[in-house]
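[Archive record]
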Amino acid sequence: MKTGEWQYDELQQIGVDYGNSGEVAKYDARMRRLRDIQKEIDTLTRATSPASDSVILEFGTGTGEFAAALAALSEKLYAVDVSPVMLAYARKKAQDRGITNIEFHHAGFLSFNATPEHFDIIFTQLALHHLPDFWKSIALQNIYKLLKTGGRFFLKDVVYPAGIDDYDSFFSAVIKGVENSAGAEFTKEIIGHIKKEYSTLDWIMEDLLKRAGFSILETHIEGGFIYTYLCTK
C-alpha cells in the first residue's frame, strides 16, 4: 500500500508501552502464567494445518512464542511486529532454540509488503484491535492479497458482542472475571483496553472479513469477548 500524509501511523504506541524491554519481559512471563500457550498453539496448528513446505506470516508476533512453534513445522515464517524491542526479544528466543527459518520484519498490517499470494497461512492474535475500523478494513484487504488462493487466515482478537442492552453490566462482569483470574495488574490493562483501544463489534468484524473477500469457516468465542475466526481465500 502506498503511503501518504493521510496514512495511519501504525508504529505509534497504543496501550501498554512495549517499547520498554522490562515491560516486554514482564509481558512474556505473564502470558506464560495466565494463558495455556501450548493449548493455543495446538488449536492454531489444527486450524491451519501447516506443512513442511508452508510459508507462513504472523502479524503482531510479540515475543515470538507462536512464531517459533509454527516455524518448526513449516518451510519459512515471516514474523512482523511494530515494536523493535518485541522483535529483538522474539529473535533471541528463536536463536536460543536453534530456529533459523524465521525472518523478522519491523512493520505492521499496513506497512508490511511482500509478493501477492505468497503465503499459505497468515495468522494474527490480539493485535488487529490496535487499528480503528477503517484501517482494519485496509489491513484485511492487504492480508487477502498476500494469502494464496485456498490458504488459511486465522484471526484471534478482542471483539465485543452486539445487541447487549447494558454494556455497563457486561464490562463490569468482564473486569471482575479478569480480576479474579489474573489479578489487579492485568485488570488495569483490560480497563485501559476497553477505554482506549479499538476493539470492534462482532457484526462489524464479520462484515470486514467478508468485504475483504474472505469466507469464514469457523467462529469461536471465549469468555464472551475473545473471538477466533478461521477464514479462507
Summary: The two ends are 20 Å apart (CA to CA).
